Amino acid sequence: SQVLKFVSFVDQTHQILALECLIQAVPLLRDYEDELLPLVHLMWSPLVEKFRNNEAVVLNRCFTLLNVLATHAKEFILKRSLKYVILCSFASTIQLLKVIVFHFIVM
To answer: Roughly how many angstroms between the first and final C-alpha of the chain, as a whole number?
Structure first.
């Protein structure tokens, strides 16, 4: 859980390394659900915040971690990921498309 504080750092290198640590750690805890689920709960808010990041490398690691979480924490993460990540990402994409279309209409 100590690595979670680095996920929120401003420095991209710290963010990526922290996400990589979590990506590697979650599968190791698959047989220890009493340890895994509280860790998933703790990492959820910082992970959702990172999905608002515009840097492709960070987003790539975030989606990789989400995939790992979905594989190992299954039901615990399914509803949260649909509500907070997938739908928010979709809404952000729609908003961006509206801005692009408006820009071309005005030009």
So the answer is: 50
Q: What is the pLDDT along the chain (107 residues), one digit of tens a residue?
A: 688 888 888 888 999 999 999 999 999 998 998 999 899 889 888 888 887 777 888 888 888 898 898 888 877 777 666 666 655 555 555 554 555 455 456 54
From 93, 79, 74, 64, select the one nearest 33 (Cα to Cα).
74
CA dist., res. 2 & res. 47, Å (int): 14
Q: Which two tokens stand for residue 24?
A: 């590697």
SS (H, E, C) 76-89: HHHHHHHHHHHHHH
- pTM of the full structure: 0.72
Q: Please provide residue 91's backbone torsions phi and psi, each rounded to the nearest 5 degrees.
A: -60, -40
- Which amino acid, 20? E
